[in-house]
Amino acid sequence: MNKKNKSLLSMSSKVNSNLSKSFQGENLLSLENITVSFEGFLALNKLNLNLKKGELRAVIGPNGAGKTTFLDVITGKVKPSKGEVFFKGESLIGKKEHKIARLGVGRKFQSPRVFENLTVKENLELSVSNPKSPFNLIKKVINHEQQDQIEQLMKIVNLLNKTNSKAGSLSHGQKQWLEIAMLVGQKPDLMLVDEPVAGLTDEETDLTADLLKSLSGETTVVVIDHDMEFIRRLDSNVSVLNQGTVLCEGTMETIQNDKKVIDVYLGRPEE
After folding, report:
1. Residue 133 confidence class, pLDDT cut points 50, 70, 90
2. pTM to 2 decimals?
3. Third-level CATH fold of 25-104+190-271
């Protein structure tokens, strides 16, 4: 490498380092002018959204507003045609899904994804093991620190009494909690949680809201859901998406009193 190239490489490294420090000081995650088009349909249209470290944020909006695509862009499943995504100061655009996950982005999908033939404890052992392999369960390579972590996770999601139960025997709500615990076990900096209370009882819904609230602070948590009572119980800032862009942001009170949100999503109460 000649001197000129070395100099350019050094300058580029310094710029990227300064950029990273700048973003880390402001936001954990920044989406800037994100545009996604599917065969001419604008799923996201110049979307801008920022998340602070440790923040709990709810994202709501009508069907087709772009909520799932928003998550797909962050995790690398969908590449935007325009815009930038910065996570801890580093651009995520063009990165593979598994590399983004390794950077500290965890995602929970709508349907619980647990290993139903394994016990609750074995699911969590697989989650905290490194590298993640079923062979680690056979070899029993889980150390004392990881065992303590697993016990703490089971306490957090109220599954300590289900330690040796097969995951397939759990209720729908308990499977949701187990998957959240598995996600927490991977120690992500950002958790993306998609419709965690679909199909849950009222009691399970309330417990899930309390669980997600308890996780924020250490972890940045984004929750997408349609259940407005659940969103209200989260007691967090809310972003409302509509037609692929952010329509309104603020507290639940702000959202509920916003004319645009009422017209396109919440609707007006019958007189």
Report:
1. low
2. 0.82
3. Rossmann fold (3.40.50)
